[in-house]
C-alpha cells in the first residue's frame, strides 16, 4: 500500500469511529472505490444455520438480500466450508480463488445463478466479528479472479478497525441501556415512596422481609401465615404502590431504613 492508500484508509477508519451505525453506505462505497472492485458489502451471517441475516451492499443493485431463491442457495457460499475446515480465520482476508478452484466455483449454482450474472467472479472477504452463532463479514467483489497483497492488507486493516468500532458501539449501547434502567428504577422509587403510608402494617412487614432477601415461604414462616396469604399481600402492595413485580418493590425500597422518608 502506498502513502496515499494509508491516508485514505486513515480517513475511512476515522469515519468508522464517528459513524452512528456500523457501516454507513457512503463509507462502504469509498472502500469499494479504494479497492477497485465492482461491489462492496458488510454482512451479518449466521454461521451455524448458514444464513444471510442482513447486508449493506454498494451499489444497492448488487444486494441480493430480498431474493428468496438466493437465501435457499446461500449455504453454498465458499466461506462456510472454509470456516468449518479452519481455513478462514477471524481478521484474515481470504478470496474465493484461495478456497476453491475456478471450475468448482462455476459449478456452484449460487455463483453461476447469482454472482456471475452480476459480474462477480471472485470475492475477497474478511471476518470482522465472530460470535457463537453470528459473524460480521466485510467483502469486496471483483469481475476478475485474484486479489493482490495490497487488496488483502487494505481489507484486513479496515476490518480490524471496524471490529474495534463495533465493540465500542456495543459497549456504549450497553451503558446507555443501564442508565435508562437506573433512571426507570429511580422514577418508580420516587413514585412509590409517598404511597408507603397507604400500606397496612402486615403489608409493610411483607415488603421489609422481601427486601431482606426472603422468599414467599420464608416470609410466610416468619409471619406465621400461609404462602398464599403472602402472595395476596404482595398483590395489594403492587396495586397500592403502582408497581408490577417483587423486583420493582425491592428496587424501590431495598436498603431504605425508612421507606416513607
Provide tags for this entry.
single chain; 261 residues; Arc Repressor Mutant, subunit A; 2 domains; five-stranded antiparallel β-sheet; 12 helices; elongated; disordered C terminus
What's the structural blueprint in terms of helices and strands?
Blueprint: H1 3-18, H2 25-35, E1 39-46, E2 51-58, H3 68-73, H4 78-84, E3 94-95, H5 96-99, H6 102-107, H7 109-115, E4 122-130, E5 134-142, H8 149-192, H9 201-211, H10 216-223, H11 227-241, H12 246-253
Helix pairs in contact: 1-2, 1-8, 8-12, 9-11, 9-12, 10-11
Largest sheet: 5 strands, antiparallel
> Which assembly state applies to the chains in this document?
single chain
Terminal CA distance reads 67 Å
Q: Structural class from helices and strands?
A: alpha+beta
Question: Helical amount among residues, as a percent range?
Answer: 40-55%
CATH topology of the largest domain: Beta-Lactamase
Looking across the biggest beta sheet, what order are the strands in?
2-1-5-4-3
Taking all residues together, what is the mean pLDDT?
87
The total domain count is 2
Q: Tell me, briefly, the overall form.
A: elongated
| CATH homology-level superfamily of the largest domain | Transcription factor LuxR-like, autoinducer-binding domain
CATH architecture label of the largest domain: 2-Layer Sandwich
Q: What is the alpha-carbon Rg in Å?
A: 28 Å
Order of helices and strands: HHEEHHEHHHEEHHHHH
Helical element count? 12
Look at the structure and give the CATH class of the largest domain. Alpha Beta
Low-confidence stretches: 257-261
Please give the number of β-strands. Answer: 5
Share of β-strand residues: 5-15%
Amino acid at each position: 500500500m502506498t502513502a496515499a492508500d494509508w491516508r485514505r484508509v486513515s480517513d475511512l477508519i476515522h469515519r468508522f469511529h464517528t459513524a452512528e451505525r456500523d457501516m454507513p453506505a457512503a463509507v462502504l462505497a469509498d472502500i469499494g472505490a479504494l479497492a477497485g472492485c465492482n461491489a462492496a458489502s458488510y454482512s451479518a451471517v449466521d454461521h451455524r444455520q448458514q444464513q444471510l441475516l442482513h447486508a449493506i451492499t454498494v451499489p444497492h443493485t448488487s444486494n441480493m438480500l430480498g431474493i428468496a431463491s438466493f437465501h435457499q442457495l446461500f449455504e453454498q457460499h465458499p466461506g462456510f466450508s472454509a470456516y468449518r475446515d479452519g481455513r478462514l480465520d477471524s481478521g484474515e482476508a481470504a478470496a474465493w480463488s484461495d478456497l476453491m478452484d475456478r471450475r468448482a466455483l462455476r459449478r456452484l449454482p449460487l455463483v453461476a445463478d447469482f454472482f456471475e450474472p452480476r459480474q462477480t467472479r471472485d470475492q475477497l472477504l474478511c471476518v470482522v466479528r465472530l460470535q457463537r452463532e453470528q459473524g460480521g463479514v466485510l467483502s469486496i467483489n471483483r469481475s476478475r479472479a485474484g486479489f493482490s497483497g495490497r487488496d488483502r492488507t487494505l481489507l484486513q486493516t479496515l476490518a480490524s478497525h471496524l471490529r474495534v468500532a463495533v465493540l465500542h458501539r456495543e459497549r456504549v449501547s450497553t451503558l446507555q441501556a443501564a442508565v435508562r434502567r437506573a433512571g426507570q428504577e429511580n422514577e418508580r422509587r420516587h413514585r412509590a415512596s409517598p404511597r408507603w403510608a397507604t400500606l397496612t402494617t402486615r403489608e409493610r412487614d411483607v415488603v421489609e422481609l422481601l427486601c431482606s432477601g426472603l422468599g414467599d415461604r420464608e416470609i410466610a414462616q416468619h409471619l406465621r401465615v400461609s404462602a398464599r396469604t403472602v402472595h395476596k399481600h404482595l398483590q395489594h402492595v403492587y396495586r397500592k404502590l403502582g408497581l408490577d413485580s417483587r423486583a420493582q418493590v425491592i428496587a424501590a425500597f431495598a436498603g431504605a431504613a425508612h421507606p416513607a422518608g
